[in-house]
Amino acid sequence: MVKGVRYRYLAIKVESKERFPKDLFMRTLINAVSRLYGLYGLSKTTLSLIEYNEDKRYAIIRCDHASVDLIRSSVASVTKINEIPVYFRTVLISGTLKALRRKLSEVLEKNQKSLS
Amino acid sequence: MRKFVDLHLAPKLKDENQVRQLIVRAIELDYRRIGISAPPGTNKRYIRKLREDADLNVDLVSRVDITCTTPKSLLKALRQVRRRFEVVAVTCLTKSVARQAAKDHRVDLVNFPYTDLKRRFFDKAEAELASGSYCALELDMNPLLTLPANRLVPLLRTLRQEVRIAEKFDVKIVLSSGVNDVSLMRHPYDYVSLARLFDLDKESALDSLSEIPNSIIERNRRKLSPDYVAPGVFVVRRGGDG
Predict the structure, then answer these.
(1) CB B170: neighbour CB atoms within 10 A?
(2) According to the model, what pLDDT value does residue B64 have?
(3) Do B187 and A73 make contact, defined as CB atoms within 8 angstroms?
(4) What does CATH list as the number for A7-115?
(5) What are the boundaries of each domain within chain A?
(6) In this model, does residue A73 exceed pLDDT 80?
(7) Which tens digit of pLDDT belongs to each residue from A28-62?
(8) d(Cα B152, Cα B156) in Å, to the nearest integer?
(9) What pLDDT digit, counting tens, does each position of B174-216 carry?
(10) How far apart are CA B18 and CA B135, in angstroms?
(11) Taking CB atoms and an 8 Å cutoff, what residues of chain B touch A72?
């Protein structure tokens, strides 16, 4: 029996003084994966962007469940975008988008409270 | 739950703002213990002041970094610092220093330069000596984030080889950040996934960030306590004269 592809959804917080558009975020991520693992590694991740919120500075990406560590290390390896220091921080990982969104809203709410 | 440790923060100690920023960031990233690297000349008062200033929920560990070129100067430096710092790390620039550091029980961590790979002397002989003492190999994760691709590839190859040797000879590995810049600090789980690049498996990487550095700190704190008499001998209870 053919098994369906199992995905993992990752919530990534973009920590920087500047804001970055969606396409620049994705391009940076793809470059980071191909820098560390090459095009072959990138092709195995089935990486795609699900959601990007420029105001709240977070993104939700999807990848193959077997390549979570690969994506996580690539995400951590990003240090600069156009010479501006940046840190892509993996906040949450979940098996379903619904669960991730629920947990993410809790995390964002908590952060908002701690700021105010 | 694991108690994560970053044993190697390397701020400029004169820049108090930077020191504080690094500490605050480390707390945000779930580190419970952090080691601030100090040169051998740093006095106890400064470390105490740092602890008092960091009135935050974190355990500050005093760490000294010794960089020597001859075994004789290493021994001299060790005599001076061992009772003053909780963690002693030696950056080995020559093979003779590397060998001396590996066999000396007063050394907790050995690390090697990342820019000149010919000076990374962690081979089988070094590992054999290190496994006999309590010396661990320290790997900084900072170069993995900052080095360009053409220099990262040979470094990863070397690290892979070192990890293989360390595992074979049962030498403990400690993963640290080695940063002096807040923007380069990463979450422990980020380091765990980055450690995959040099074939360190998940459980070992987690131990390298928690169990192993914690055991080094506990061991040294016990040794530095007034109850310590000799290896394996401690004062259990003090009695009165009568």
Answers:
(1) 9
(2) 92
(3) no
(4) 3.30.70.3250
(5) 7-115
(6) yes
(7) 999 999 999 999 999 999 999 999 999 889 999 99
(8) 6
(9) 999 999 889 999 999 999 999 999 999 999 999 999 999 999 9
(10) 30
(11) 189-190, 193
- Cβ neighbours around A21 below 10 Å, total: 10
Q: Which of B147, B193, B204 to mutate to test the interface with A (most CBs of A within 10 A)?
A: B193
Q: Which CATH architecture has domain B4-226?
A: Alpha-Beta Barrel (3.20)
pTM above 0.80, yes or no: yes
What are the residues whose beta carbons fall under 8 Å from the beta carbon of B195, sequence distance 6 or more?
B141, B175, B204, B205, B208
For chain B, which residues make up each domain, given as ranges?
4-226
pLDDT tens digit sequence for B133-150: 889 999 999 999 999 988
Position B28: which residue type?
Answer: E
Residues of A engaging B, defined by a Cβ cutoff of 8 Å:
35-36, 69-70, 72-73, 75-77, 79, 85-87, 89-90
Instruction: Judge: A87–B194 Cβ closer than 8 Å, yes or no.
Output: no
Cα(A12)–Cα(A3) distance, integer angstroms: 28
Tokens standing for residue B59 = 């355990």
Q: Reading across the β-sheet that carries B59-68, which strands appear in turn?
A: B4-9, B31-38, B59-68, B87-92, B109-111, B136-140, B173-176
